[in-house]
Each structure stands twice: as C-alpha cells, then as structure tokens.
C-alpha cells in the first residue's frame, strides 16, 4: 500500500505544480537556514576530547583576593609561583603547566628567512594527557623537564618545511639562535575548541608548530605570547616578574576517578590555606577544579552570535512550517469530494491519514534535497558572518546531510498533521449530497 499511496501523492503534487513548488521552497529554505547555523553551533560546542574530558581538570587558585576578582571567581590563570609549586607537589596522576610562546625557527639554509611559529611551553605529561598523536618519536621525559633539557617536539607541517617530511628525531632545530634536539613529531592535531588554552585563543586558532619544556622556556626568559595580567606592577626584570602575582600560566591535571578529583580539590584548598598562613594571601582559600566541558562553559567558548543565529534560524523554520501548514490545508481540503468518495467506498480514516502523510513526506523529501543544496551554499558562505577560525569548522559532512533530510521530512510530517486530521474528518454523506 505504501507504493500505491506514494503514487497517489506524486500524482497529486503534479496536479498543482505551483503550490507544490511553494511548499518545497518553504521547507527547503527553512531547513537550510537552521542546518547552516547548526553546523556552526555544533562545531563550536562539541566536546574536543570526549574520551577523557571528564578526567582532565583546569586548576584555578585565587591569588588576587576578592577586591580584584569578579563574583568570587578566581583568575583564569596561575602565577609562576603557584604553577611550579603545584607541579613539584605531584599530587595528580599527571600534570602540566602551559603557556604560549612565539619563537622564530631559523632554517639551516641561510637563503631562507626565519619562520615565526605558534608554540607552547609545556611539561612532558602534556602529550599523554591530551593524547597528541605522534608520527615520529614521542614526547620528552619528565627527567628532561627536571634537567631543563633543550628538547623539542614539532608538528608534521614544520617537519615538512625543515626536513622535507623525512626522519627528524635526534636532529636539531635552531630556535632563536639556540639548538634544540627533536624528540618527536606530532601528526596533524588541533582539537577544536582548543580547551587547554581557551584563555589565549578563545578556543579557535591555527595549530601550534612546536613545543618545548616549560622549565627550559623559563630559563631562556621566553615571555608569554598570550594574556599577561598583573594586579600591580611587578617591577623591572625577569626575576621580579616570575616572583610577582602576575598570572600567565595554565595548569592542567589528570585525575582518573571522582575520588581523585575530590582529594585534589582538598589538596588545593590546603595549599591556599598554607599561602594564607604564610602571609601571601589575606583571604580564605578560593580554588576551582573544573573538567573540560565545565571549563569551556565557564569561558563561554560558544560564540554568542552562533547561539543567536541558531535561535533566529529555528524561528524562521517555524514560520516556514506555519506557511506549509496553510498550503497543505488548502491543498487537502480542495480534495474533499475525492476524500468523501473514498470514504464512501470503505476507506478508513487511518487510510486517509496514511495517504496524506506519505504525500506530505514526499514534499518534505523534496524540500530536504533543496535544503541540502542550500545548506551547502550556506556552509561555504559562513565566513561572511563568522570569524575565519570558526567558519572553517563548519562542514557539510555525512551526519549533517542525513540530519538535513531527516529534519525536512519530520518537519513536513509535523506540518501535515493538522491538515491531514481535517481531511480525515470529511463526512462522506455531505460530500456526496453536495456533488
């Protein structure tokens, strides 16, 4: 019977091509608008490391006091003093301090110009914590951290530039006139949002080209290439700076269980209380320990414009569906005599429902195909509305293609429910008497 009702539906659609075209366009444009904005929202609100997001935590310790913080929220970075102290305590399964740097890579070929690279100073635990995929070699060791070794991890793109994509582990890279030994090469890897450095990137940025040990970066007095906030002037010189209350370090820990997280939170409170007793803090301990998704939520990583545009586009879809309801109602009720005859010949209301819902589903499928084309155009044009770093994340992948078609068909069936109900209520006797 499905094939028969489908045949009837297609025949009915061909009888009123203009009305059919209006319904298909209404559904197509409504679905395309909502799916285009959803593609951006999905990209910015996704979980960047779903397999570990509940065991990775960002650490916050209030070193400024209530007069310099907002709504009791600790600063979103740590001082060098706190980052080093927490790292030395080794109270977590893994931990790493992190801050962005901007060194220049000097090629061996004197005819080539130095290359400015996005980079990070991190601990050895950074790589296994965040599951960075290695193409060659691996991360340096914690012993290298302790020895302040001149080692480096580079990404695939930089390896292609410096070593033509060949084996580079053990070779040297000139960084601002200093030589670093290559420990490993990371394959293509750029989690979005970049949860481990939301504060400096907003969550979306090009992938970093290299990583060096945090301890070595501090030895070389490499300044942060990100945010640097000081409640008061730290004074002249690097030594005064790293002993100050300026915040510029991220600090992440890996805690495999909830019990570990509770214990580490207790340790942070004890650490802050110890700083209070030592006279450094004059306020009660104020610390936070947030996992990846909690941290992204607090940092408002999802752009407000993507949320607003999604809400507006959904409203537009609703308006399109309301228009579709009116068009379907007009189309179905014009066929009241046909319905009356079918009912008089023994067709049940259930049969009428099936026939007209299948017809509406056909309209929805056609609208979905149109919406799919328009969604593709919309995704290509997202850069006209959103920043480049966010626009490039919106893609028309198989999941979005399937979702577009499902939404279109489902929307048309929802829009058809009331017109179909009205059609099923047609009284055969009245139609036969009037005709």
From TrEMBL:
Keywords: Cell membrane, Membrane, Transmembrane, Transmembrane helix. Residues 311-428 form the ABC3 transporter permease C-terminal domain. It is found in: Cell membrane. The chain crosses the membrane at residues 21-41, 308-330, 351-380, 400-418. The keyword Transmembrane helix applies. One of its GO terms (molecular function) is transmembrane transporter activity. It is a multi-pass membrane protein. This is Putative ABC transport system permease protein. Coiled coil: none annotated. It comes from Luteibacter rhizovicinus. Residues 20-267 form the MacB-like periplasmic core domain.
């Amino acid at each position: 019977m499905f094939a028969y009702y489908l045949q009837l539906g297609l025949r009915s659609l061909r009888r009123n091509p203009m009305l059919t075209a209006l319904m298909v366009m209404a559904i197509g444009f409504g679905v395309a608008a909502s799916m285009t904005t959803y593609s951006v929202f999905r990209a910015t609100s996704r979980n960047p490391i779903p397999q570990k997001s509940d065991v990775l935590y960002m650490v916050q310790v209030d070193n400024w006091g209530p007069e310099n913080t907002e709504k009791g929220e600790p600063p979103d970075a740590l001082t060098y003093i706190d980052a080093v102290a927490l790292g030395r305590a080794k109270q977590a399964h893994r931990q790493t301090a992190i801050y962005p740097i901007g060194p220049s890579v000097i090629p061996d070929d004197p005819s080539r110009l130095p290359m400015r690279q996005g980079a990070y100073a991190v601990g050895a635990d950074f790589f296994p914590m965040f599951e960075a995929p290695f193409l060659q070699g691996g991360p340096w060791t914690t012993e290298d951290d302790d020895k302040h070794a001149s080692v480096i991890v580079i990404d695939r793109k930089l390896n292609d530039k410096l070593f033509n994509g060949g084996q580079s582990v053990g070779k040297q890279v000139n960084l601002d006139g200093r030589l670093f030994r290559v420990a490993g090469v990371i394959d293509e890897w750029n989690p979005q949002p970049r949860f481990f450095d939301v504060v400096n990137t907003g969550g979306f940025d090009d992938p970093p080209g290299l990583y060096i040990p945090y301890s070595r970066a501090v030895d070389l007095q490499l300044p942060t290439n990100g945010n640097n906030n000081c409640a008061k002037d730290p004074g002249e010189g690097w030594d005064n700076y790293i002993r100050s209350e300026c915040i510029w370090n991220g600090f992440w820990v890996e805690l495999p269980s909830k019990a570990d997280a509770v214990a580490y939170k207790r340790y942070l409170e004890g650490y802050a209380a110890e700083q209070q007793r030592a006279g450094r803090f004059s306020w009660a301990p104020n610390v936070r320990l947030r996992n990846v998704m909690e941290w992204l939520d607090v940092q408002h990583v999802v752009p407000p414009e993507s949320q607003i545009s999604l809400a507006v586009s959904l409203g537009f879809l609703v308006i399109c569906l309301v228009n579709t309801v009116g068009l379907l109602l007009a189309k179905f009720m014009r066929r009241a005599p046909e319905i009356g005859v079918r009912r008089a010949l023994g067709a049940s209301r259930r049969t009428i429902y099936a026939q007209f819902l299948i017809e509406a589903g056909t309209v929805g499928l056609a609208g979905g195909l149109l919406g799919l084309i328009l969604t593709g155009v919309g995704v290509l044009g997202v850069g006209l509305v959103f920043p480049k770093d966010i626009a490039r994340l919106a893609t028309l992948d198989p999941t979005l293609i399937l979702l577009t078609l499902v939404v279109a068909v489902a929307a048309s069936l929802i829009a058809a429910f009331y017109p179909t109900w009205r059609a099923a209520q047609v009284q055969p006797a009245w139609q036969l008497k009037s005709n």
